Amino acid sequence: METLYRILNEIAASKASDLHIYPGENPFIRVNGVLQKMVGTEFSEDDVKKIILATSSPRAREILGKHRQVNYAWERGTEGRYRFSVFFDRGKFALSIRVIPMTPPKFAELGLPDPIKKSLAKTSGLVIVGSPSGHGKTTTIASLLDFINTHFEKNIITVENPVEIKFKDDRSTFIQRAIPLDVPNFYSGLSAAYRLDPDVVVTDSLNYSDALDEALFLCESGCMVIGATDGGSCSQILERIIYSRQAAERDGLKGKLATHVSMVIGQKLVPKFDNHGRTAAFDILVNTPQVKTLIRNENLVMLRTIQEQDNASGMQTFDRHLASMVQKNLITPQTAIAYADDPHEMTGRFTRK
After folding, report:
1. In the structure, what pLDDT confidence band is assigned to residue 352 with cuts at 50, 70 and 90?
2. Mutual orientation of helices 186-193 and 209-220 as an angle, nearest 10°?
3. How far apart are CA 168 and CA 259, in angstroms?
4. Residues 306, 340 contacting (CB under 8 angstroms)
5. Residue 254 CB-half CA count within 13 A
6. Are 152 and 121 a contacting pair, CB within 8 Å?
7. Bond preceding residue 23 cis, omega within 30 of 0
8. Residue 50: which H helix or E strand, with range?
């Protein structure tokens, strides 16, 4: 464990997000989205087994023995909190460890526009947060929950794999349930949440059809649901959700999404101006009457136009946000061009006289 503690200290100093450990090989850490090999350090298979024994609960080990993989959270006193993913690689135990913030970030720290707070004040509706893996959707959801916790009296139930950021009750109260330690899967967790007097239900995956259906049912019952999924821009997220279904199911799903989606947030992390860390660029869609019509008619290509034009509701595109971050010297023009949905148009923004 001493070697692990040393690496965790190095992770804290370098602000790395992930640590990957494979027996008999150099571990890797991910810093600002880039993998770096830790030369001179190596874990044996016995070392990895000792780490698992020292950090996991008996229930987690039981699940590992049955399913040959398990996710769980582990705290190192007051020094850090981590998500452990234990699995088998070529017949040997291996670990992927992600750093979890000890406290939720504040809404303003992420650069989210103030008008979208109106969506968080609603009593019901579906808020979808999407990003590629490792691009901060868990952090963004935590900031939304922190805002609700400090501004409204709500009973908030989370269904996570595992519970990552732990919340302290403020004006709201929290029930945080872990998969598979407390509930077997996302569908069961969302279904059980209906019986727990929820005002807000949070799930870290809407990727499963049954979980999405249960989330929409909770919205129909008068509850707000905040859910994570994979994706890029808001239109891509909605397209992915719709086209994950058979053709016969799509019309019904489009109708439900048009009715219940309150807001969609797409995001990706981009390098800061000084290359010391990354910052989030947001693509935001608020479900106005125009947007409802476009979703029902599956005219998703027009969503980008509305996002560009409707500033008052808090909508924006990735490219508009990237351009504004260049103006504020948060990122370079080269970064904005590299991460833009329309690199040609973004290049033109910086070459026009």
Report:
1. low
2. 10
3. 32
4. no
5. 20
6. yes
7. no
8. helix 45-55
Which whole number is the average pLDDT over 45-54?
Answer: 96
Query: Hey, which residues does 295 pair with through a beta bridge?
Result: none
257's CB contacts (< 8 A; 6+ apart) are: 126, 216, 238, 241, 242, 295
C-alpha to C-alpha distance for 192 and 169, rounded to whole angstroms = 21
Instruction: Compute the residue count for the chain.
Output: 353
**What is the pTM for the complete model shown?**
0.91
Q: How confident is the model at residue 320 (pLDDT cuts 50, 70, 90)?
A: very high
Q: Which residue has the tokens 């100093």?
A: 13
Q: 320 is written with which tokens? A: 């508009």
First to last CA, the chain: 59
**Cβ neighbours around 54 below 10 Å, total:** 10
Which has the minimum average pLDDT: 75-79, 83-87, 229-233, 278-282?
A: 75-79
Nearest to 20, CA basis, from 105, 85, 114: 85
Tokens 């946000």, residue located: 321
Element (H, E) at 10: helix 2-14
Write down the residue that tokens 């602000």 correspond to.
15
Burial 118-156 (b: 16+ CB within 10 A, else e): ebbeeebbbbbbbbeeebbbbbbbbbbbbbbbeebebbb
Cβ atoms of 307 and 265 closer than 8 Å: no
- Token pair listed for 185: 């899967």
Place of tokens 């979208």: 116
Per-residue exposure over 254-269, b if at least 16 CB sit within 10 Å of its own CB, e if not: bebbbbbbbbbbbbbb
> What is the spatial distance between Cα 210 and Cα 216, in angstroms, rounded to a whole number?
10
